Structure formats: C-alpha cells, structure tokens
Amino acid sequence: MKRSAASTVPLVRLLLLLAVATASAAATGGMAGAAEAEHAANYLVYVNPHPPGVDCQAYQLGILAAALGSEAKAKAAILYNYRNVMSGFSARLTPPELEAVKKQPQVNRVLPSATLSLMSSKFDGVS
Description:
By secondary structure, the chain is an alpha+beta fold. It contains 4 helices and 4 strands. The chain has helices at about 5-40, 55-70, 70-75, 95-100; strands at about 40-45, 80, 90-95, 105-110.
C-alpha cells in the first residue's frame, strides 16, 4: 500500500515534535546538573579513625562512596585525605551530597572549608 505525501506530513511533524521535546528535556537535565555542580562547595569531613589493618584512604573513600552512590563519584569529589592530626578528608560536595555524607554513621562532623589569611605579617616587631 502506497502512502500519499499528504498523509506522511503529520507523521513527520509528530516525529520532529518528539525529537525537539527529547532534546529540550536532555538540555534541561544537563543544565540542572550543571547548576547543582555550580553550588558545590568544599567541606572538611571528620570521621571515626580507621580500624587497625585497614588502609586509611580506602576507609575514607568507602565512607564517601557509600554516601554518593559510587566509588567513581567519590574519587571525583575527594580533594585530600587527613590521617595524622585528624581522621577525615576534604571533598567538593553539592547540597544533596552533603546531606548524604552527614547521614553516614562514621561521620562525626562536617564543616565548610575556609582559607584564612593574616591581616598583617608583623608580629611584635618581627616581620
């Protein structure tokens, strides 16, 4: 059975409309992800000390991976591991990720990371 050109026009329009809607939804989803990443900030995460015989970095990465849902996301988010003076790590997290990290049982405290600088380099006549 042959179709006339007039009968295929509505079908083509429907397919174009679906393609535009799909592209628009994908672009909006990508923009939402980019906007969420834009609101990411650096945090210091204090955790319980790692158990004896367990690698410190692997332990801390496991805590972050459990919160974020994958080891790949945890590796992308983690900035630095602390193990000498404190047990913890710094990571770049979005607000939802921050809330997930706070819920982990090994996490004691989460603070925003801040860089502090001296207002003067002179201390009691020493420069």
